[in-house]
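Query structure, 267 tokens:
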């Protein structure tokens, strides 16, 4: 099996005036099609910076990002827009639905950008609303729906272009615990049934535990990976490749060790 995403020595340093803020200090990992990955860490650890760079929304300071066979850090802005339109779906914490459009029109929007005609795009939108168990609300605008319903519309919108990869930044951050479980169940369902690759950022260890594999970040480094017990995709990768997905882990117990001495390769 070949990875769908490969990241090597990914670094990001923000410059504010004379100050340099290192947000990512060298990430090395592979992700495979059909994996549900959680990037987990406390506030300021570098999760969103990592997601933004994988999605081509920010340029790395150093390093390589291969996604579906393309080196995205070398693309210019218009190539990145086309790349995202064709390969990537986004799920946002605050849903980002357009308030004056109903659910069908919101979901159909990415297809409109692709030039798909109204009848065809509305049909596709309804299909994904059905998949998310929210077809009854197809003609409701966002203010006529609960948070959980809006997020299901948000997921349908991410799916409508049939992307290989879906990025989700704190997708359940605004939901109560019951609705969070419902939305996570649906997210697992789309990963398993449609073989999508889902990369979710969260600060919450319980939400992260829904994923197949957690990458825990502290101070811009991966300090731990956690596999979900019994994960089908992780067993499939192990069986086909003879090893676990490549990740370089920098464990936290660094006292008395020089730089790099305690780095472990987990594969
Ligand atoms: N545009 C920016 N300019 C300067 N510094 C930034 C910028 N974006 C992020 N940072 C800094 O980079 C570090 C990592 O931030 P990031 O937003 O990736 O963390 P996070 O883990 O996603 O946090 P949160 O959960 O609070 O969103 C922090 O120290 C942050 O202050």
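Result returned for the query:
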């Amino acid at each position: 099996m070949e990875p769908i995403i490969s990241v090597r020595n990914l670094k990001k340093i923000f410059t504010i005036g004379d100050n340099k803020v290192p947000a990512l200090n060298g990430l090395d990992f592979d992700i495979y099609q059909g994996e549900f990955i959680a990037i987990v860490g406390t506030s300021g650890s570098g999760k969103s910076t990592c997601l933004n760079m994988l999605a081509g929304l920010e340029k790395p300071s150093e390093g390589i990002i291969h996604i579906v066979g393309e080196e995205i850090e070398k693309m210019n802005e218009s190539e990145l827009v086309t790349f995202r339109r064709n390969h990537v779906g986004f799920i946002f914490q605050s849903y980002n639905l357009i308030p004056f459009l109903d659910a069908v029109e919101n979901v159909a929007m990415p297809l409109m950008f692709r030039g798909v005609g109204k009848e065809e795009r509305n049909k596709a939108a309804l299909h994904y609303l059905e998949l998310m168990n929210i077809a009854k609300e197809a003609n409701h605008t966002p203010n006529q729906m609960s948070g959980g319903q809006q997020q299901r519309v948000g997921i349908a919108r991410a799916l409508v272009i049939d992307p290989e990869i879906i990025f989700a930044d704190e997708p359940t951050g605004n939901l109560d615990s019951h609705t969070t479980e419902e939305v996570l169940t649906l997210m697992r369902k789309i990963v398993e049934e449609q073989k999508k690759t889902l990369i979710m950022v969260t600060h919450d260890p319980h939400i992260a535990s829904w994923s197949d594999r957690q990458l825990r970040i502290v101070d811009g480094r991966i300090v731990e990976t956690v596999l979900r017990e019994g994960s089908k995709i992780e067993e499939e990768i192990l069986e086909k490749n003879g090893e676990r997905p490549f990740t370089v882990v920098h464990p936290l117990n660094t006292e008395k060790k020089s730089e790099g001495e305690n780095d472990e390769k987990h594969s």
